[in-house]
Write a structure and sequence with these properties.
- By secondary structure, the protein is mainly beta.
- The protein has 14 helices and 46 strands.
- A hairpin with a 2-residue loop joins strand 20 and strand 21.
């Protein structure tokens, strides 16, 4: 701009010199070439060369041939011909000259240091703080015609080259106070046409009608511009349309997304305020309308924007090319296949609020419908407020919506959401705590969240917030969150989040109906993070987490045809246990579950340098006590763990067996002592050592509820071993004893599996190989004396063998038992007889497994006749009633 001003001053000086000596020039103008060029050089430092000067009279004219201007040896501009014709005496009230330039060329360059080939003005910089002074327009245009033909402009910048051709530039006075402009140009081969008309309406008002176009873009400005201070009194209309962006990509040398047809129209006006009205923006099928008013006095902008529908997915698709999408896919695939690298420690960035200290904004945004990212939102009404302050700018947002729907299977559906948020900067530059924050959020009107305090907007440190969450009915909360829970009463949560001095300390008090849960924790990040937490609760009831059955019984889980191994061979990721320390205390006084009531849960755990231990850990239920301990050592190459558990029960059914399988009463004890090591679940199972000892007495089981146990093969095994279940409504379980020695992942029971009922005794042995996930268990039922039972009805051997998750059931039917006492039968049945014989001997030589002093008389049948030679066996008769 300064270069153009300097050029205009130079040209005016040249014209003045020409006018002063016009009489002499008319006589012999070429005599003055050297004085003229020397004078220009002395006054401006420009080197001017003139090929030939011709003059004429009637009308007076001056014609310069082969004009060239340079500065410090660098060419600035040249022209084949410059012709000036005077039609009248110079005046600002009427036209008096014509000017024509033939084949002018302008050269402009700028190096990387900002130095131009054009001379720099030494005039002092204008004070931008002062208001521009008004100026008066002339009564008429001073020219008859200004014509430039075959112009050429070359621009050289550090990052780009520009070539502008100017086949035609014509400014012609067409009537009094009126002129027409026509420009034909091409920028790097992209052709543009500018046509317009100017009218000097008054001393301070210039009317113009300009149209700029090329094959993909049309722009029109129809306005009346004022020359008063701040352009007060200007008004007009601007329209812009764009059919494609290819020419913009070519001009800028960068890829610009191909947009649908775009259109922008607006009216503007300038008085004491700057105004935009009737703003219409159309992008494809989406449209936006609005108004805006800006006050330069207090820097206040008020704006209103409206749209019937905004499709975010369509907008994002416009600005993402296929190359960018493919690159994004590769990044996602890389993130999935490659483990994440440990993040580098990057300092928190400072927030600069100074850009808001002189801004005042009131913006209203109204969207009838919004869609994007699988969401649909109706009736969005938002207000954004910014209040500038020299020290503490303030930003506030208030928004409300109608229905919100998620377009996915079982997607979220909300009736309404409202938000009020306010942030007041703590300073113009902040790091750490950035602003005083207030937040109010309401979902479906009744679910509310309030938060207040000092907030860090770009990091977790230096937070100091309190919050309250409330829902008068949790059913509405579950429904909003698409959770299948039942009503649990009113929810109230009071919380505090503090992250001062590098320590994150959340505190939480939750009330759900009559339930209460407290959480106090602190987390210190770093190379070795540390967590300290205390959780306490009272009168908790989690039955609301189990959805009610509408009708019928619960469906049994479907069997996965492609089941995976029970114990995975994948390496256990124990980095969290190795790389952080923790101390956790957990205490619950009263917990009701869908199957039982727990009086107390108490747990204290400590994790230090990969070593995890528990102490004072117990669970108390009505008539039941569970005490357990755990210790583990986790390293990069191994995991070692051992646990001990002791369970004493005075009412086994109260543990939930009564609800789950109709097993009531009972008492007994369970002891587990186990230890193992390994880097995977499979290795831990394969290296397991210890013992499992269970002795339960005096239980009652409803026989018509056996199928509730939840496994077809268990149900079938119970039915085969206890045929009385078909006729008796209940089974009295006098003793259930299970003992396993565990060594290197193999659980072995040597005839230590016992079930004693009022009518029979079932004895078994076998092994479970956890590493191979195989099992072989053998059971033989023996009736007690004095029942009058047809013993041939009893199965003689039930064998459970095969895969742990889906074992097979083998049954040695009636008639084989008696032959089990003979060696020949054992050989014929592949050893099954010997197994049964060994189990029977064990049953005969021992009393009750739960009480050795208690003797049990068993009805051992006599050997039956061997089957006929053809191998067929007689069908056993139906059981006799006891």
């Amino acid at each position: 701009m300064k270069a153009l001003k300097f050029f205009a001053v130079t040209l005016a000086s040249l014209l003045l010199v020409l006018l002063v000596f016009i009489s002499l020039l008319v006589i012999q103008p070429n005599w003055f070439k050297q004085p003229i060029t020397r004078l220009i050089n002395d006054q401006s430092g420009l080197q001017v060369s003139l090929g030939r000067i011709d003059s004429g009279v009637g009308p007076a004219s001056l014609q310069l041939q082969n004009v060239a201007v340079a500065h410090r040896g660098q060419q600035l501009l040249n022209a084949e011909q410059v012709r000036l014709e005077l039609t009248d005496w110079p005046s600002l009230e009427k036209p008096f000259f014509r000017l024509a330039l033939a084949s002018p060329q302008v050269i402009y360059s700028l190096d990387k240091d900002g130095n131009s080939n054009w001379p720099q003005s030494s005039a002092p910089k204008e004070d931008s703080s002062t208001s521009p002074l008004p100026f008066a327009l002339p009564g008429d245009f001073a020219f008859e015609n200004i014509l430039i033909e075959d112009g050429d402009i070359q621009i050289s910048l550090p990052a780009q080259q520009r070539h502008i051709t100017l086949p035609l530039l014509q400014l012609e006075r067409t009537a009094e106070n009126r002129a027409r402009l026509a420009i034909r140009t091409a920028i790097d081969g992209e052709a543009f046409e500018l046509d317009g008309e100017f009218t000097l309406s008054s001393a301070h008002q210039l009317a113009l009608d300009l149209a700029l176009s090329n094959n993909a873009m049309q722009t029109r400005v129809d306005a009346s511009l004022s020359t008063r201070a701040q352009m007060d009194g200007s008004a007009g209309k601007v329209s812009f349309s764009l059919s494609n962006t290819a020419f913009i990509s070519r001009l800028l040398g960068v890829e610009i997304p191909e947009l649908p047809e775009a259109r922008l129209t607006t009216r503007f006006g300038i008085d004491s305020h700057y105004r935009l009205s009737d703003l219409e923006l159309q992008l494809g099928d989406q449209a936006l309308s609005g108004n805006a008013v800006y006050s330069p006095t207090d820097h206040h902008l008020s704006a209103t924007l409206r749209s019937d529908h905004v499709d975010l997915d369509a907008l994002l698709a416009l600005f993402q090319s296929e190359a960018i999408a493919e690159a994004g896919t590769e990044v996602v695939e890389k993130e999935i296949t490659e483990p994440p690298a440990k993040p580098e420690q990057i300092g928190e960035a400072q927030i600069d609020w100074s850009g808001l200290n002189a801004v005042n904004l009131d913006a209203d945004i109204v969207l009838k419908a919004f869609s994007g990212q699988q969401w649909r939102v109706a009736d969005i009404d938002a207000k954004i407020v910014i209040r500038g302050d020299k020290k503490r700018p303030r930003l506030a947002v208030a928004a409300s919506t109608g229905k919100i729907l998620q377009n996915t299977e079982n997607g979220y559906a909300l009736d309404s959401v409202s938000l009020d948020a306010e942030f007041t900067a703590l300073d113009l530059q902040t790091q750490g705590a950035d602003a005083d924050a207030k937040l109010k959020l309401a979902v479906n009107e009744h679910i509310t969240l309030n938060a207040e305090g000092r907030a860090n907007l770009n990091a977790l440190e230096e937070q100091e917030l309190t919050f309250q969450l409330a829902a008068p009915s949790t059913l509405t909360l579950w429904q909003a969150a698409k959770l299948p829970y039942t009503e649990a009463g009113a929810l109230n949560v009071d919380g505090k989040l503090s992250s001062l001095k590098g320590v994150l300390s959340p505190a939480l008090i939750m009330q759900l109906g009559d339930q209460r849960l407290n959480l106090d924790a602190s987390y210190t990040p770093g190379d070795r993070p540390k967590l300290t937490a205390s959780v306490s609760g009272k009168d908790l009831d989690i039955r609301f987490l189990s959805p009610e059955q509408t009708s019928g019984t619960a469906e049994k889980p479907k069997t996965d045809a492609t089941k995976k191994p029970l114990f995975s061979r994948d390496t256990i990721d124990n980095r969290l246990l190795r790389e952080m320390d923790a101390e956790v205390a957990f205490n619950i006084q009263g917990l009701t579950t869908p199957v039982n009531r727990i009086d107390e849960i108490s747990l204290i755990a400590q994790l230090n340098k990969g070593k995890l231990t528990t102490r004072n850990s117990q669970i108390k239920l009505p008539d039941n006590d569970l005490n357990f301990s755990f210790s583990g050592n986790f390293t990069e190459n191994d995991n070692r763990a051992q646990t001990e558990l002791t369970f004493n029960s005075r009412n086994v059914g109260a543990l939930g067996l009564e609800e789950a399988a109709q097993i009531r009463g009972g008492h007994g004890k369970v002891e587990l002592k186990l230890a193992s090591h390994g880097t995977s679940a499979h290795a831990l199972a394969s290296n397991l050592n210890g013992k499992i000892d269970t002795r339960l007495q005096d239980l009652t089981m409803d026989n018509n509820k056996v199928d509730l146990i939840g496994s077809d093969w268990i149900t079938e095994a119970i039915t085969k071993l206890n045929p009385f279940a078909k006729s008796d409504p209940v089974t009295q379980l006098e003793c259930v004893s299970v003992y396993f020695d565990v060594k290197n992942g193999v659980m072995v029971s040597e005839k230590n599996l016992h079930v004693e009922t009022s009518k029979m005794k079932i004895i078994g042995d076998g092994e479970v190989d956890l590493g191979k996930e195989r099992m072989t268990l053998n059971f033989t039922p023996i009736a007690r004396k004095g029942l009058g039972v047809n013993l041939s009805y009893l199965a003689k051997l039930v064998k459970i063998h095969g895969d742990i998750q889906s074992p097979k059931l083998g049954v040695d039917a009636g008639g084989l038992f008696s032959s089990a006492l003979s060696t020949s039968a054992a050989m014929a049945t592949g050893g099954a007889s010997l197994i049964a014989q060994s189990l029977v001997e064990r049953a005969m030589n021992a009393g009750s497994a739960c009480d050795p002093s208690k003797k049990i008389e068993l009805a051992i049948p006599e050997p039956e006749p061997e089957s006929p030679a053809d191998g067929t066996a007689e069908t056993p008769p139906a059981p006799e009633a006891p």
